[in-house]
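Field log, afternoon session.

UNIT: design team B
ACTIVITY: writing a sequence onto a fixed backbone
BACKBONE:
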């Protein structure tokens, strides 16, 4: 794996040293390369920081694949949510996560308020929330 990485790094360096890249179009090619790279880096950062991608504690290959799949599904869901709700001005996945946490808390408060207002016994509220009374 390391050899392959070094080989790719050498190839990238050779590309930037090519006469084409020394022309005026070099900055365009380089900027496009870094724009793609930046997207990958920021996505990986969100996976690690917000979705716990770097915190898996499994050893089997199947378990690692499942964990990665769950992280990527969560990431894609959050991105889909962010894009579909443009009116909320959610700029990043982190903003989307914060928004969803606040929405969950709001829904919880609404649930408890509604049931308390309708004189539902506390034991029944615990049962609906699947909490120990």
């Amino acid at each position: 794996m390391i050899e392959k990485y070094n080989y790719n790094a050498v190839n990238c360096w050779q590309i930037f040293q090519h006469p084409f890249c020394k022309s005026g179009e070099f900055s365009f090619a380089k900027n496009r390369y870094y724009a793609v790279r930046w997207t990958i880096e920021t996505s990986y950062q969100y996976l690690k920081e917000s979705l716990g991608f770097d915190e898996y504690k499994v050893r089997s290959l199947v378990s690692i694949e499942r964990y990665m799949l769950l992280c990527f599904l969560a990431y894609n869901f959050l991105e889909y949510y962010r894009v579909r709700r443009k009116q909320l001005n959610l700029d990043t996945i982190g903003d989307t996560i914060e928004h969803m946490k606040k929405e969950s808390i709001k829904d919880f408060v609404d649930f408890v308020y509604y049931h308390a207002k309708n004189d539902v016994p506390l034991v029944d509220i615990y049962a609906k929330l699947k909490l120990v009374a």
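LOG NOTE: The mean pLDDT is 79.
NEXT ACTIVITY: expression trials, pending approval
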